[in-house]
Amino acid sequence: MKASSALSLCIILAIGIVTVIGNLPDSTMLWAAVQNACHAPAFGVFAIALLVLLRNILPRYNHAQLVYYLLSFGITILIGVTIEIIQHFLQRDADFIDVVRDSLGAASFLGSYFILDSKITCWTKIWSGAVRNILLVLSLLIFLSAFISLGFSVTAYVMRSQEFPQICNFVSCWSDQFIKMQDATLTRVSPPVGWSDLSQSQVARLCLGESEYPGVTIEEPYPDWSSYKTLRIDAFSNSQDTLHLGLRIDDVHHNFSESDRFTCELILVAGLNSIRIPLEKVRRAPKGRETDMKAIQRVILFAHQPERPVIVYLNRFWLE
């Protein structure tokens, strides 16, 4: 076996094995986004290694080099789909979007390699420069498109830091990166009649469905709350009935037991409710320890087994 074939095979096997069984911890959503984006360069390298291997084991196609590129791209995508299927049965985080990232990485790397490939003899003096430049730009754009999701995540983290001590602005698009819904929907609407802050052009309409614990979770708020004393929430209800909601705050050390977190009841009457939560209560809430106020992990607003959908209007959560 040629040395290039052996090296290519090792690269192919290494990338395949790591992708299937590698399980790096998703400590933050940003780190998870980085791992997802890495599919593109990983499968780009995979496609080039496969191209080299195919040339060595299928020499009869040397007169038609494009065949190797097409085979390499097709097999790479097939392997990507197979890996996601295997991950599904291994109860891993299988995601079709990863196949798209695999495809973008393979296309961009193969396109760039095609430009530099000495075995490609179709270039002419007239067209070689222009066509190669076009292919290079296209390959670069294809590669960068695999990082769009990562770019959104980075932007969201930057905005989160800039707007602190605002924890979450439900009407800002960057907040969507950190908001998760559980049997609930969140839509942006005009402020309801009676909303006192007329400067707001939009507010968030939260509809909690009829399930055990419908709610909205703010994942990874800016973590260091240690310099502040109060969590503020403005919540508007247009229901004539008194609403009973729950508020839960976890730190990164939370062991998911009810006694190891802060939970309180929020009672909302018709109209605008200005809620103030003393952070000292949050700090002292867990039994046997104190909440790490420099490492807040999530904030959850929820209802408990509502008999009918609960509608609440929100604008922002912030610290004072």
Name given to the CATH homologous superfamily of the largest domain:
Galactose-binding lectin
Which structural class best describes the helix and strand composition?
A: alpha+beta
* Strands, count: 11
CATH architecture assignment name of the largest domain: Sandwich
**Uncertain runs with pLDDT below 50, 5 residues or more?**
none
Structural domain tally: 2
User: What fraction of residues sit in β-strands?
Assistant: 15-25%
What would you say this structure looks like, in words?
This protein has 320 residues and is of the alpha+beta class. It folds into two domains: 3-146, no CATH class; 164-319, Galactose-binding lectin (Jelly Rolls, Sandwich), CATH 2.60.120. It contains eight helices and eleven strands. Strands 1, 3, 4, 6, 9 and 11 form a six-stranded antiparallel sheet that branches. Helix 1 runs parallel beside helix 4. The chain starts with a helix and ends with a strand. The model has no long low-confidence stretch (mean pLDDT 85).
Tag the structure with descriptive keywords.
5-stranded antiparallel β-sheet; 6-stranded antiparallel β-sheet; 2 domains; 320 residues; Jelly Rolls; elongated; 8 helices; alpha+beta
Mind sketching the topology for me?
Layout (H helix, E strand, L loop, with lengths): L2 H19 L7 H9 L1 H19 L7 H25 L6 H21 L11 H18 L2 H16 L2 E4 L9 E4 L1 E6 L13 E6 L6 E5 L10 E8 L5 E9 L10 E7 L2 E8 H6 L11 E7 L7 E10 L1
Antiparallel strand pairs: 1-11, 2-5, 3-4, 4-11, 5-10, 6-9, 6-11, 7-8, 7-10
Helix pairs in contact: 1-3, 1-4, 2-7, 3-4, 3-5, 4-5, 5-6
Summarize the entry for a quick read.
The chain is of the alpha+beta class. The protein has eight helices and eleven strands.
